[in-house]
């Protein structure tokens, strides 16, 4: 049941603890999660789960020894650390100790002093037992105290935060004094004394003002002590010899909050002193979308060879961490947010329940214009100066380090990042500026990295993020209809456009756009609609990213009323040499449609005239034929028609007497 792992640490099999009835299986899992049982190896695939013996809770350890005996007497090789057991009495003593100033010991010192006591207890056990010396010191023939001092100095400080001396003589004297005077020996006599009381109230206020001065900053305690003593001579205050008095005053829990923000900033103050909310992320897609603009941490080269970075605005689904929409641009303006959300809703196909955004100038314009309220049910600004409330920032940080950092032109993270891996290899980048990607290539790289991120496993579920998103259903996030897309993202021209015989035309950003209304599911112009709507005024909406389609509206007392859609007017080559095969047929179809429209209108007019006995024939005159059309209408051929007249006019030369048109008939 007892064995050593590869680091020579004494362990006990977890299965034996449960099977022997010392703890139940549910209790065992709970003890592991709380740290009362430290698991060094995980069971499975033939392995046995092992628990570190010396870190077990004292009551559990006692039950193990009662059932299995003392493991240290059963093994031949154990390490020095195996003799180090937590001295609970020492821990209680330091935790309940009261200093001269009426306060308790800081937690750091409680851990330090308790560890000192535990290590000395282990040393005392080893020194008084030859067997223990052979086991703990591996039979070393060196002086026992030399070996002990060496072992103590090698103890890892993160596990054993002791302050015992490295010198064997000083260490030995320390142990003698400890065995004689007890736990109090480690507490410095000046620690916690009323040094701060040497400073009167006026002096305290002066010290606090110096320490929080935002302009003439005091950089350290040595400078503060000098400034204080100079002022003390003027004010007749008591001089201070040690910086500790100032440290004791400024580190007082009642004083520390008064200067922390001035020294380290408001955000650091909030992180240290303000209790954050405990929140749970959404359990379904489209419940909450986060948006934020940030820098793409990749260098690229401009057309003139300069090295630059560029910004990106991202929209992310909080549930799945899927990046839904983005837009790359020089500035984080309103257009970036508009385009990113447009892409997100196109990909999602649903209207999010809530979106969260910061108070950037671009977002402010979109919010004030009602854009965010249109595309979501709730539009909420994230709390300013509270980075923890913006989940997208931490997610994007992981995206940078896990995916963008794979590229050689990575800029590194923020300059405040402490890890070496968080910084770029500028020597290599500066040596190869000509190999940097162009902006177009950078956009392609970024798109690929986003795809990899969306396809990568989510850290909590292990499923690909994109699968999590599409497999989730949110009943409160309705599908977006085509007309809603128009309402959300299309631009409305404030000035109406007049429909002419050529269709509907307007200029946008100095570019001319021409549109006509086509018959449904056809590329044939709806001539009947155009005839009826010539000179009519329409308000239009269009998608600036796709100018091939516009919507026409009429303004009513209740708002805009949709009329129809118009599409880009098809152009054909006038010369047959450059015409494609479809153009000739298209031209013939349109000519035939125009003829049929003219015939239909003429027939309607003639039928109405005849009904009321008002046609030309009723008066003994002839109705002219429709020119260029072979219709079934019966009429006598007119000797002189309009075509002949126009021909003669075009060839006519005016004389001084200006011949009358009657002379041409």
Written description of the protein model:
The protein folds into 5 domains: 2-75, no CATH class; 88-186, no CATH class; 194-273; 289-471, Ribonuclease H-like superfamily/Ribonuclease H (Nucleotidyltransferase, domain 5, 2-Layer Sandwich); 490-571, no CATH class. 41% of the residues lie in helices and 14% in strands. The longest helix is centred in the C-terminal third of the chain and has 31 residues, at 581-611. Residues 634-638 and 658-665 have low confidence and may be disordered.
Strands, count? 16
Average pLDDT works out at 82
CATH superfamily of the largest domain: Ribonuclease H-like superfamily/Ribonuclease H
* Total count of helical runs of at least 4 residues: 25
Beta fraction of the residues? 5-15%
Structural class category: alpha+beta
| Radius of gyration, whole Å | 44 Å
Low-confidence spans: pLDDT under 50, at least 5 residues?
Answer: 634-638, 658-665
Q: Which word captures the global form?
A: elongated
What count of structural domains? 5
How far do the termini sit from each other?
127 Å
Query: Which architecture of the largest domain per CATH?
Result: 2-Layer Sandwich
User: What CATH first level of the largest domain would be assigned?
Assistant: Alpha Beta
Give the fraction of residues assigned to helices: 40-55%
């Amino acid at each position: 049941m007892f064995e050593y792992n590869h680091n020579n640490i004494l362990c006990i099999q977890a299965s034996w603890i449960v099977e022997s009835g010392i703890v139940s299986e549910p209790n065992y899992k709970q003890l592991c999660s709380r740290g009362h049982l430290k698991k060094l190896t995980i069971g499975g695939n033939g392995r046995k789960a092992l628990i570190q013996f010396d870190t077990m809770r004292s009551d559990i350890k006692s039950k193990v020894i009662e059932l299995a005996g003392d493991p240290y007497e059963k093994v031949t090789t154990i390490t020095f650390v195996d003799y180090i057991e937590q001295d609970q009495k020492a821990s209680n003593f330091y935790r309940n100790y009261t200093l001269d100033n009426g306060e308790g010991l800081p937690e750091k010192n409680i851990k330090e002093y308790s560890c000192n006591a535990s290590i000395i207890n282990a040393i005392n056990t080893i020194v008084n037992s030859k067997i223990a010396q052979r086991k703990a010191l591996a039979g070393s023939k060196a002086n026992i105290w030399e070996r002990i001092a060496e072992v103590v100095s090698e103890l890892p400080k993160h596990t054993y935060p002791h302050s015992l001396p490295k010198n064997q003589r000083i260490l030995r004297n320390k142990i003698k004094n400890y065995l004689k005077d007890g736990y109090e020996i480690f507490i410095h006599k000046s620690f916690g004394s009323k040094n701060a009381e040497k400073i009167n109230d006026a002096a305290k206020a002066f010290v606090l003002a110096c320490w929080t001065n935002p302009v003439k900053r005091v950089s350290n305690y040595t400078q503060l002590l000098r400034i204080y003593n100079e002022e003390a001579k003027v004010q007749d205050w008591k001089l201070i010899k040690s910086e500790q008095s100032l440290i004791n005053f400024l580190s007082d829990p009642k004083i520390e909050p008064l200067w922390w923000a001035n020294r380290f900033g408001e955000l650091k103050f909030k992180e240290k002193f303000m209790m954050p909310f405990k929140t749970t992320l959404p359990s379904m897609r489209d419940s909450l979308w986060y948006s934020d603009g940030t820098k793409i941490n990749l260098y690229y080269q401009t057309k003139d060879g300069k090295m630059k970075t560029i910004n990106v605005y991202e929209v992310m689904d909080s549930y799945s961490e899927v990046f839904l929409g983005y837009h790359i641009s020089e500035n984080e303006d309103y257009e970036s947010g508009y385009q990113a959300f447009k892409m997100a809703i196109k990909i999602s196909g649903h209207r999010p329940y809530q979106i969260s955004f910061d108070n950037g100038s671009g977002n402010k314009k979109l919010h004030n214009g009602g854009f965010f309220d249109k595309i979501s049910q709730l539009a909420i600004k994230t709390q300013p100066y509270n980075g923890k409330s913006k989940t997208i920032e931490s997610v994007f940080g992981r995206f940078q380090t896990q995916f963008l950092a794979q590229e050689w032109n990575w800029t590194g993270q923020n300059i405040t990042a402490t890890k070496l891996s968080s910084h770029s290899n500028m020597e290599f980048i500066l040596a190869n500026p000509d190999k940097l990607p162009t902006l177009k290539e950078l956009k392609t790289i970024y798109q690929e990295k986003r795809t990899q991120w969306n396809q990568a496993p989510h850290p909590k579920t292990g499923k690909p993020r994109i699968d999590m998103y599409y497999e989730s259903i949110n009943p409160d996030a309705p599908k977006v209809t085509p007309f809603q897309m128009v309402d959300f993202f299309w631009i409305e021209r404030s000035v109406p456009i007049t429909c002419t015989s050529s269709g509907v035309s307007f200029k946008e950003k100095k570019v001319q756009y021409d549109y006509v209304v086509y018959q449904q599911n056809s590329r044939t112009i709806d001539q009947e609609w155009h005839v009826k709507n010539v000179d009519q005024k329409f308000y239009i909406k269009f998608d600036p990213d796709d100018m091939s389609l516009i919507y026409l509206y009429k303004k009513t007392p209740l708002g805009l009323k949709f009329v129809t859609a118009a599409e880009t007017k098809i152009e054909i080559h006038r010369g047959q040499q450059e015409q494609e095969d479809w153009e000739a047929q298209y031209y013939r179809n349109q000519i035939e449609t125009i003829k049929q429209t003219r015939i239909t209108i003429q027939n309607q007019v003639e039928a109405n005239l005849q009904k009321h006995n008002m046609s030309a024939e009723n008066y003994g005159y002839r109705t002219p034929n429709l020119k260029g059309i072979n219709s079934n209408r019966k009429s006598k051929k007119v000797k002189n028609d309009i075509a002949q007249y126009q021909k003669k006019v075009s060839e006519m030369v005016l004389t001084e007497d200006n011949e009358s048109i009657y002379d041409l008939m």
